[in-house]
Amino acid sequence: MQDYIKRLLIAGLMALCISLLFLGGKHSQAEMLDIEELTSHWVWPVEGIVTDLYGTRHGHHKGMDIAGEYKTPVHTVDKGIVTKSYYSGSYGHVVFIKHDNNLETVYAHLAKRHVKEGQVVEQGDVIGTMGNTGDSSGVHLHFEIHKEKWTYGKENAVDPNNVFGEAAIGQPVLALGKTGDEISMETIAKLRLIDDRSIGAHADENKSKESQNQNTAADKREETGQKKHIVKKGDTLWSIAKLYKTSVKAITENNNLKNNHIAPGDVLTIEKASGNSYIVTVGDTLHSIARKTNTSVQELMALNQLKSDTIQPEQILIIR
Predict the structure, then answer these.
(1) By C-alpha distance, which of 61, 125, 136, 145 is closest to 92?
(2) What is the pLDDT of residue 10?
(3) Where are the transmembrane segments (predicted)?
(4) CATH classification (class only), 222-319
(5) In this structure, what is the dihedral angle of CA atoms 301, 306, 312, 316, given to the nearest 10 degrees?
(6) Mapping DSSP to helix (H, G, I), strand (E, B) and coil, where does residue 262 land?
(7) What is the pLDDT of residues 133-163, one digit of tens each?
(8) Which of 121, 126, 160, 307 lies 20 to 30 A from 85 at CA?
């Protein structure tokens, strides 16, 4: 009798698990069909070659990359309202648009933005031009779709292939066109040439004067010991100072910070410390550090602009 009851319980649990899996699958399929229906009229945002897809880079890539010629016009896929238009350390020049179907699209790494926050746009309007700004390794548009709204964790991200169809890396696309539209051989040849120059490359012989100026500025920063640090989640001024062997005081002064508050996406200018540096450990005093580094307490205080001999573990001190 007990064995019979056990068998019934096991069978019931198995049936419940199967039904939950079935319902989950139906929900996902229904959700996908809903997205396809809501976006059936959308058009490609730019002319170029698909160079990366959703879900690559160990699942961290939450959009689609389309490489093309520098300053190629970027269009909105549908009408909507610009929710954000700004410069980000990671996205570069970026535009966010909220659409009537409650989806939000993101257009990143632009050379220039042509729209402002709160502006109403129609389908096909030019909202900017393709560029290589922010954390980018070549001229391209990084395009994202999100249900309801974009979040830092990108929990609401939608695969653009659910909208445009099964695009593949190396596939040419036309601005304002749709998947399956016929593309002339001449256009394909032009896009292939652009693709060869763009993928993984920061520069080529035809790069614009504006982009060359950006590279020159970067070279000058390297020569003077300056670096740019894009703040990531979990970063603190202490951890950044430790990474670059500088001090929190130097970072706050170089970036005109009024307090120690920093946020993901902030871009900090890091000035390379002159001389060597010493990381304070538990038990250290200025006297013990002076002995270890063959200097004096007075010199340590002067170099680090210390008003007292109080120091903290993990503090970065500049030494001769």
Answers:
(1) 136
(2) 65
(3) none
(4) alpha beta
(5) -70
(6) coil
(7) 998 888 999 999 999 899 988 999 999 998 8
(8) 160
